[in-house]
């Protein structure tokens, strides 16, 4: 299936059947996340992969009792930096320098501009910016899952502060942004019978000359 066909096949499953997803498929999704573009290439987020039933059960009430959290095979939690710091920015750029085989003067000058820009902005603005980067990778994961015939339910209907405490994300300077339960839709998922509805193209798109 091409991208449009996959986009029509996938939907936000509300009930999964508990079947486990193989590690090679999970690895494929994680690599898609790894390859997603981010602002300045800094990958301002981390992803936590939850497999254990006990931890999923603890997350269930935090996620408004959306049962897909416990019915899924793997539950991904996308958590982004709570703020920019010089250290975090430098670390991201050092990783690029190291893997590209040395420091490039132009890219190093750009690094300094990024440090000056973000370390002078308010924390909440920065946290919103880093969260937006996580959403890009989140989207990649949803598409990658569909390509493998897997269901992935995009979720932000959870208590982020409670999840941060449970997973110790606050201590790591991270804030949970989204969750992505991955698995297989249940045959009797009531939501699967719903027609996929989107805005009409004339409403969504405006051509300007
Ligand atoms: C950022 C985001 C957050 C969402 N949060 C939830 C959620 O917490 N629970 C849920 O059942 N669906 C959630 N959804 C699914 C949307 O309701 C769904 O994607 C939308 O209605 C379009 O339907 P479709 O994905 O089935 O085509 C979320 C989707 C996105 C993109």
UniProtKB/TrEMBL annotation:
- Top-level division of the source organism's lineage: Bacteria
Keyword Flavoprotein carried by entry: yes
Which segments constitute the Nitroreductase domain?
A: 9-184
SUPFAM superfamilies tied to this protein? FMN-dependent nitroreductase-like
Pfam families, alphabetically?
Nitroreductase (PF00881)
Q: Which Gene3D superfamilies match?
A: NADH Oxidase
Enumerate the cofactors the protein uses: FMN
- On whether Oxidoreductase is a keyword of this UniProt record, the answer is yes
InterPro entries attached here?
A: Nitroreductase (IPR029479), Nitroreductase-like (IPR000415)
Q: Which keywords, in A-to-Z order, does the entry hold?
A: Flavoprotein, FMN, Oxidoreductase
The Swiss-Prot or TrEMBL record describes its family as follows: Belongs to the nitroreductase family.
Q: What is this protein called?
A: Nitroreductase
Give the source species: Neptunitalea lumnitzerae
Q: What is the lineage of its organism?
A: Bacteria, Pseudomonadati, Bacteroidota, Flavobacteriia, Flavobacteriales
